[in-house]
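Recall that a protein's primary structure is simply its ordered list of amino acids. Everything else, from secondary elements to tertiary packing, is in principle encoded there. The following example makes that idea concrete.
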Amino acid sequence: MKIKQDLIIYLFGLLVFLASCDTTPKSGFTYAEPETKGYSSQKLELLKEHLEKSGSSSMMIMVDGAIIFEWGETSKKHTIHSIRKALLNSLVGIAIEQGKIDTSLTLKQLGINDIEPKLSENEQQAKIIDLLKSRSGIYHDAAAVSEAMLRSKPKRNSFAPGEHYYYNNWDFNTMGAILEMQTGKSIYDLFNEEIAIPLGMKDYKGKYFTYTDGESSEDLNFTDEDGFYQYEKTKSKYPAYHFRMSAHDLMLYGQLYLNYGSWDGNQIVPKEWIDVSTKPYSNLQNFVKRGILWSVIVSKDDTKRNSFFHTGAGMHCLGVYPNFDMIYVHRVDTENKSNYNEGDFFKMLDLLFDSKIKK
């Protein structure tokens, strides 16, 4: 009897010891001291001070598979704005591999059109790949278009499909609709099944709702939704599909892409698709190019992968830097009237990259 009691006590003590040695908390991430990954704790403290003053809501930095910096409400969900397009990238890549999407098909072949003024014969020759590259040549009105996007919007039929790059919500919104049409599932259910559950996202559950013309996402009283369709039916039949995510779950998504689409021994997103998506197809400004649903920073070394990122209104950002084995997520709570400014975002980046210890 005493041997059995001693064994129970020993096993309990062993479990306590192992728990104390575990570097992976309940969040699922491994954590490390910055210096062990080549970054300065002291300089990251300056980053923290800047985030507090500038009005960020959260930020996380992962290097070499471990979190070296975590600040703010990293489990709080709020709208990610245009980063939604980077989330679409994975679902499209998976659907292509499954044979559900053929990027060579034209809109005419798919039976895609819109409200008056309907698509011209020329516009209907745009292919799925043109939408993915935001080079469709279709300048129909669309949901969730900002004033800045409207200012640079070309006139209808001024460019042929594939000829000109324009950051075009019509392309992105319609691509989401095509994905749903070809798979028979909502974009939120697809993301939950194909990405959130396999990655073990703790905050995203796939709950969504719909709202229509005249409402602003800034005026909505969100509870625990993970996304919402925004219809502006006087502009287009296709809604914008917004996602609400935490910094924690966005970091997992970035880690999936840094891992070349592999997770726990399973290839979630095709590696070849990630390579294709992070090649440059259009020039943006300076060293930044546009890939497929990602912005791309071309590596100077042809043997290394390009870095890629996506920003969202209010200066949200998910950045993946394979050459540094680094990912960062920066969040701003734009659902609560944030006044965060662009200058503070670029200062944040300066502080981040300056925290790397020089050799």
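Confidence is low (pLDDT under 50) at residues 1-26. The domain at 72-354 is CATH 3.40.710.10 (Beta-lactamase).
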